[in-house]
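Discussion board: Methods & Data

I've been asked by a reviewer to show the raw model output for two of the constructs in my manuscript, not just the figures. I'm not sure how much to include, so I'm pasting the format here to get opinions. Each protein appears as its amino acid sequence followed by a line of discrete structure tokens. Is this the kind of thing reviewers expect to see in a supplement, or should I convert it first? Here is construct A:
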Amino acid sequence: MKSTNGNTKDPKPVISIDIGNPRVNKSEGERLFTEDGNPSEFTHQIMKILESIHLGYEDNSKFINKLIQLDLLESFTLEVTLTDGSKHELSGFYTIKETSLSALSSDQLSSLHSEGYLLPIYMAVASHSRMRVLVNKKDERAG
């Protein structure tokens, strides 16, 4: 939920509490507000965590939009056959489209670098080599 406080151009995130929820009470748990109605230290800590999540979500949205703009995202399905013969199909994943990445101009690469996106892109590509290691670990545990 976002509060605009009259400013529709820059809405601020707010924390909402369902006071009808049975976990909200006056006798147990962490105090959310001080005696004078201000957020407690616990609430301040939660606010910091939620702010980090919110900012990360915004940063991620910008990153994903940039990847889409440059046609760098592609969906994939991971198909794995374990040594016991069982087959597993995991879908709903996205990865970097390496053909589009290698076709980027130097200006586009420079832009990705200056925005802090180039390293995560290459880390995603590099992570592909770790998939076999993870599958092997799963296979060892299953066997």
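Construct B, same format:
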Amino acid sequence: MKFRNFIIMLFAAFALISCGVQPIKSMSNRQVTSLGDKNVTKEMVKKAIMRAAIHKGWTIKETSDNTLRGTLNLRKHTAIIDITYSEKAYSIKYVDSANLNYDSKTHTIHRQYNNWVIYLDRSIQVYIGEMQ
């Protein structure tokens, strides 16, 4: 009976642990659409990304002509991303993290990372829309 309870508890623990991680989410080639007759420029996309990132609590810095590096520090967790952009599209890619259970073999990470990326992406879309 004790062995059976041990096995049940072991499976329950694995189930709880596995619920916390998901395949890592990258936003690739997110299209920038223009509204009306105003053309979207690369500088407009950059400003929208920076405003959205700051609004969502990310620290952002320019690392090259078309790449921004975002860092989010929440409590004991850190996420680092690169956002490449042009006047037509942008992409959000995982770079590094701390205390988010990233597994490079399975490309999984704590589910909260994916939520942060999704929220950032939505915010970028909103700010791009506001600039037009």
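Answer (T.O., handling editor elsewhere):
This is acceptable in a supplement if you add a one-line summary per construct. For B, something like: Residues 48 and 128 are 5 Å apart (CA to CA).
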